[in-house]
């Protein structure tokens, strides 16, 4: 990886959007420019780290499955597991339901 590849996204996140998200919390009354800047920068670094790990997993493009795999495998991203769960095919879901029902029937008898 070159040094350029390791730098965070230089375009930056829109601070107005970050301010709106921060103000949506009932506990926050006033947002200083310094705190807005720090939260925006921290968010950029977080998104960069997540995307970089997903890119390592896929090797080429950042994909949903790569992001979900990173969330599942790294403890530091576990809090995102409800937001980025692994995709499950309907066929596999029905099969797991059927297996659970069979297990319950065997346990009940």
From TrEMBL:
Name of the featured protein:
Chromatin accessibility complex protein 1
The GO biological-process annotations, alphabetized, read as: chromatin remodeling; DNA-templated DNA replication
Q: Which residues form the Transcription factor CBF/NF-Y/archaeal histone domain?
A: 13-59
- Keywords on record: Acetylation, Coiled coil, DNA-binding, Nucleotidyltransferase, Nucleus, Phosphoprotein, Transferase
Please state the protein's primary subcellular location: nucleus
Q: Where in the cell is it found?
A: Nucleus
Q: Which Gene3D superfamilies match?
A: Histone, subunit A (1.10.20.10)
Annotated InterPro entries: CBFA_NFYB_domain (IPR003958), Histone-fold (IPR009072), Transcr_DNA_Rep_Reg (IPR050568)
Q: How does it assemble?
A: Heterodimer with POLE3; binds to DNA. Component of the CHRAC ISWI chromatin remodeling complex at least composed of SMARCA5/SNF2H, BAZ1A/ACF1, CHRAC1 and POLE3; the complex preferentially binds DNA through the CHRAC1-POLE3 heterodimer and possesses ATP-dependent nucleosome-remodeling activity. Within the complex, the heterodimer with POLE3 interacts with SMARCA5/SNF2H; the interaction is direct and enhances nucleosome sliding activity by the SMARCA5/SNF2H and BAZ1A/ACF1 interaction. Within the complex, the heterodimer with POLE3 interacts with BAZ1A/ACF1; the interactions are direct.
Name its species.
Answer: Holothuria leucospilota
Which cellular component terms (GO) are annotated to the entry? CHRAC
Q: Does the keyword Isomerase apply?
A: no
């Amino acid at each position: 990886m070159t040094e350029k590849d390791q730098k965070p996204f230089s375009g930056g996140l829109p601070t107005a959007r970050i301010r709106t998200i921060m103000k949506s919390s009932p506990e926050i009354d006033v947002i200083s420019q310094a705190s807005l800047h720090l939260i925006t920068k921290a968010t950029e670094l977080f998104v960069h780290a997540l995307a970089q790990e997903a890119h390592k997993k896929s090797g080429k493009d950042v994909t949903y499955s790569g992001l979900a795999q990173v969330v599942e495998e790294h403890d530091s991203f576990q809090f995102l597991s409800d937001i980025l769960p692994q995709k499950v095919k309907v066929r596999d879901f029905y099969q797991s339901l059927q297996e659970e029902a069979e297990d319950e029937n065997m346990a009940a008898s």
